[in-house]
Amino acid sequence: MSGLFAFTEEPMATAAPVEIKALPFEGIGFDEVDGIVEGIAAVTGNWDRVNECIEAGAFARTIAERKSKIPMGYDHEHAFGLTLDMAEISRADLPQRVRSAAPDATGGLWAKGQVVLTDENIRRLERTRERTLAGKPPGMSITYRVMRDQKARAPSGREGRLLGELALNEWGVQDRLYPVNTAAMVTEAKGMPVGVPVVDTKALVG
């Protein structure tokens, strides 16, 4: 894979490993002309199934420095599109269904992307739509490096982590991993109305 849509990592000042969080969403669709995907890629302030909580402001630096350079991927193996816009939003700006799923959420990471409509990506979108309509949607996910964190006691009683600053590598559609945070979801995707219930599945471990 080469050229405009190749996924490359910029040099980082830290050797922190790349981590991933996979998340469910309510629905996804596509328009063969526009191919726009929009939604909540991550939620801040709530504890996920692996006893981690992303703090508000965790994405501020990576958005300011790299927003337009963060690719939208599919399964973190395929170039899927480009980021059009991205921002941390407050709790008040979260969709009601997100606030209901995560009463303790303080906000989230909103992202909007343009799918590169190659034949392969159109087939991926068609498969995603079929799964969503069947009530078995794939998810959204982010990959990132933890730049700042601290240990904390999670509501489960187990030792967890507060993630204070994350450097995003990628966001996008995740067809194979199970979600660790059931509150994040696509809020709008051109070509199909949103409204498929969130699927509550077990986190992938091991």
Précis, in short:
Helix content is 14%, strand content 38%. With 206 residues, the chain is mostly beta strands.
Note the main attributes of this structure.
about 210 residues; mainly beta; nine-stranded mixed beta sheet; globular
Question: How is this structure best described in words?
Answer:
Strands 1, 2, 3, 4, 5, 6, 7, 8 and 9 form a 9-stranded mixed β-sheet that branches. The protein is mainly β. The longest helix has 15 residues. 14% of the residues lie in helices and 38% in strands. The N terminus and C terminus are likely disordered. It contains 3 helices and 9 strands; from the N terminus they run E-E-E-H-E-E-H-E-H-E-E-E.
The whole-number mean of residue pLDDT values reads 75
> Roughly how many Å is the radius of gyration?
16 Å
Helix content: 10-25%
As residue ranges, the low-confidence spans are: 1-14, 26-30, 186-206
| Total number of helices | 3
Question: What is the element layout, followed by pairings?
Answer:
Blueprint: E1 18-24, E2 36-44, E3 52-54, H1 60-66, E4 72-74, E5 78-90, H2 96-101, E6 107-115, H3 119-133, E7 139-153, E8 159-174, E9 186-189
Parallel strand pairs: 3-8, 4-8
Antiparallel strand pairs: 1-7, 2-6, 2-9, 4-5, 5-6, 7-8
